[in-house]
Amino acid sequence: MTMLSPAATYHAELRQQLDSVGWAISVQRGLVWLARGLMAGSVIVLGLVVWAWTSDTVRNLPIPGLVLVPIVVALLTAVGSLFIRHNSRELARRIDRAASLHERSTTALELGARGEEFPLAIAQMRDAVEHLRRIEMLDAFPLRVPRRELVATFFVVLVAAIVGFSPNPWLLRARASNPSITIAREQAQRVQRLADSLAAEQNPQIDALRQVLNNGAKTVDARSNEPDAALNALQDLEEQVQQMSQGDDQLSASLAAIASALAGDQATQPLADAINTGDMRQISQASKDLAQAFQSMSPQDQQRVAMVMRDAANRAGRVSQSVGNQLQQAADGLQAAAAAADAAQAGQNGQDQGQSADGQQADPNGAQAASDAMNQLSDSTAAADARQRTASQLESSRNALERALGRTQSRSGTNGSNGTSNNRSPANGQGTNGDPSAGQGQDSSGQGQGQGQGDQPGNGNDPGGAGSQGDQGGDGSQTGQGGGYSTGGDPNATNNNGSPSNLDAIYDPQQVQASGQAAPNESSVNPYTSDAGSGSAQTAPEAVQPSYSNQPTQGNDQGSIPLGLRDLVKDYFSSLDQK
Amino acid sequence: MSVLPANIPPTAPRDNAGTTPYRFIETARAIEAEVSQVIIGQSEVIRGVLTCLLAGGHALLEGIPGLGKTLLVRTIGEALDLTFSRVQFTPDLMPADITGTSILRDSAEGTRSFEFQPGPLFANLVLADEINRATPKTQSALLEAMQERRVTAGRTTHSLPEPFFVLATQNPIEMEGTYPLPEAQLDRFLFKLTVPYPTEEDLLHIAQVTTGANMPHPTRVASGAALLELMHFAREVPVAESVLRFAVRIVRRTNPETPDAPAEIKRFARYGSSPRGLQSLVLGAKVRALLEGRYNVAFDDIRAVALPALRHRIIVGFEADAEAVTTDKLIHDVVATTPEE
């Protein structure tokens, strides 16, 4: 065994002590670099925010990503700092300073490296080693909170937040000089709101639609500073939605066939009525209700409804195989449930109660299958409804942006051909004019558009084409609006040909005496109003326009107007304001 | 008698055989303690003189009369069991008066021969009081003896006894009729120590101690041989290269021609320290390290001895005099601005 000289022994021990110094320094430095990384990450975030601020895409910045960037950078720098190696000389110098060793370690290290063996050298090395042994490394290199870095980080984050939340004056100026930017942003927000309004259901079709809308809204918003690009993005989005809606025509046609089949039975009458309304939402709800009703039907009712469903499935299958299959499954399920219930009934009559229980056990299974099938149909109609509303709003947004950009080419022809008109009047004997032209809004100006659906004809928003729409919309004399949108009115009303002049005339109401007989177009005495005074009954549109626009605007804001119609209402009254 | 303070490192060896770091420190502290009994206050000056002795150098003490310079040197002589002589320098003092001279002596056989009669320099500890009052010729003879540690009389060279220390004093006032030491000769002193005026407490203590019936007398704690041993031992104190480089940088930066010298040095200093200044710096630091209970030189040791080791080696110009810039201030600047690494 080789005995080490005292100098070599002390030197080896000294190096061992210095290794622990290196560990303590690494930990301390890791903490510092963690804070520095946090600061560097914050600076990166600040850069991103400033970039987004200048390009007006702050809203598109993902908040979790902004939080993650500093954390990831901090961790990377901290871990990276642990891999930095120290040489012994540097460690000796650091510990000498940190523990006030007065260069004991440095000197001892040199003496050991040189292999000095004279008495004072050995005494010095021993002195250094024994001093090092007594040092608590965490006392010499305490884990201090790197306040400077953290304060800097705080201010960087603060600046980033201020920048992120403050408006960009250059962009504001640009928007002021180019209103189409603002309109493009508004349309992006509308699309986003539309996406948000799609209820979070267990419906993959609606989920897909929501995803498409979310992405589209972000794209449009990101390009809002270039309205042309935003318009292109909007058009792309519209095309995507149209592609998703390709099977909806078949669904509508098959629903019409189903309605006629279901109308004959009391149990399925609500669904038939809902289908006749043409409102996919109502159809969806009625389908769900029917699916729930299956559970509580008697076997006889289930048998009867199953037959009705089978008939509906046969009719729908000619138009849409998938819808037909769903109804067929529902009918099969009900059939099975009814058969099981009959068997149970027989068992109850002839045998013990236990068999009856077994027989009834099959009953809910069949009904459940029917419910599932109807729920699938409900999902399909709900998705179709969502796509329908989406397509309508996207079209409205595109039109608004096109108008802002001064693109006035007619789209009526295209939209007319896409418009659907379900002439369901023969089925329920209500309404008379299911003319598809009612919904087209086509006129000489060529800007009317919309969809007519039988007895609820038309979402035309063209001012010029409104008169004819009102006339064709069933009760046009009462509800036809000069702005081109007609709700169609009472389906039971006769198709009175209203005078176009009635649509454009706006009356300034005059108060009549309490004792007088109020004519239909006069207001009665109202104690809450003062004397209206005299004057011409007819007034200029500008005088009443604000109050005229007020109610629909409030309705839009309060959500009392159906979502699919809000944009039409808004566009219409905005166009009046521009006039 | 143990006078070791509490800050003696615990690693000091317990065996006292031979010269060990522990014994060195013990002896040095004992001397210091003995001197401090007689000299009230002036601990820095006492430490400086002791450092000078243990480093084997000569010291120049500067201060107004009555501050105890002469008493200090004499007390050290008594505490060290050294031969002590005092020379009061005056303008008419001749070299032979301090070095010695050959005199004609009759032998018992009736023959006559010249015999060298040693002067006061032939002592272990020489107090050259008011050295600046002697003529340059006498000063030169003293300084030559200090450097060479021998005296030449006629054609015979006589070695001075070991150890040999010269502790010179000079009065900064009453400059009339004095011969300021030339810079080249000042360089031969290891340290130049400034004796400050005592504080109020020290004066009170001085009055109490020195006006009583029993004056304290130092006891001898070390012989000349032991002192020589300690001097050799002190030279073995290891110095880390970084510390040595620090000392080198300080000395270099006192020179106005050095590129990285401080602006004050470039403006006010005419000449910087010589390499002998570096030797003084390192030697003084080694002794100080031992006195502080360490076996190695630290940056702080270099800083602590920079003033006494360098203040008489930097020659300032008239601008410094005009603006009352002292060499002490310049050294402070140099030390403060010199990086350790």
Provide the descriptors you would attach to this structure in a database record.
heterodimer; A: 579 residues; mainly alpha; 24 helices; B: 341 residues; alpha/beta; Rossmann fold; Helicase, Ruva Protein, domain 3; 2 domains; five-stranded parallel beta sheet; two-stranded antiparallel sheet; 11 strands; 44% helix
Can you summarize this structure?
The complex is a heterodimer of chains A (579) and B (341). Chain A has helices spanning 6-54, 63-82, 88-98, 104-114, 119-133, 137-140, 147-165, 169-177, 179-197, 204-222, 227-244, 248-262, 269-277, 280-293, 299-319, 321-350, 353-405, 412-418, 425-428, 466-472, 476-479, 500-504, 541-558, 563-578, and strands at 452-453, 456-457.
Can you walk through the features of this model?
The complex is a heterodimer of chains A (579) and B (341). Chain A is mainly alpha-helical and 579 residues long. Among the domains of chain A are: 160 residues, no CATH class; 143 residues, no CATH class. Helices cover 69% and strands 1% of the residues of chain A. Chain A is built from 24 helices and 2 strands. Chain A has a two-stranded antiparallel ribbon. In chain A, helix 1 packs across helix 5. Chain A starts with 5 loop residues before the first helix and ends with a helix. About 20% of the residues of chain A have low confidence. Chain B is of the alpha/beta class. Chain B folds into 2 domains: 215 residues, 3-Layer(aba) Sandwich (Rossmann fold), CATH 3.40.50.300; 105 residues, Helicase, Ruva Protein, domain 3, CATH 1.10.8.80. Helix content of chain B is 44%, strand content 15%. In chain B, strands 2-5-8-1-9 form a 5-stranded parallel sheet. Chain B has a two-stranded antiparallel ribbon with strand order 3-4. A two-stranded antiparallel sheet of chain B has the order 6-7. The radius of gyration of chain B is 21 Å and the shape is globular. The two termini of chain B are 42 Å apart. At the A-B interface, helix 4 and helix 5 of A face helix 9 and helix 12 of B.
